[in-house]
Specification:
The chain is built from one helix and five strands; from the N terminus they run βββαββ. By secondary structure, the chain is mainly β. The protein has one domain (5-62).
């Protein structure tokens, strides 16, 4: 089954910045998407906590499944 959230904007380093919920036609920032995942709105996703230097970042990620064709990206 295809994931309903697609990445619409990435930084020059490949960090996913903007997302689109294709069912609700709603765009979200990385932080808004991470908040929604943590509230349980998107059960097929989880949030990774990555520390870069002194900055901790929340990175939305799709839950793993058997397909490599439907990862965020």
């Amino acid at each position: 089954m295809a994931k309903i959230v697609k990445v619409t904007k990435q930084s020059s380093t490949g960090l996913n910045l903007r997302f689109l919920d294709t069912k609700k036609h709603k765009t979200m920032s990385r932080g808004e998407f991470a908040d929604a995942i943590e509230r349980g709105v998107y059960p097929d996703y989880h949030v990774k906590h990555i520390k870069i230097g002194d900055v901790e970042m929340r990175i939305p990620a799709s839950n793993p499944d058997k397909s490599e064709n439907n990862n965020l990206g």
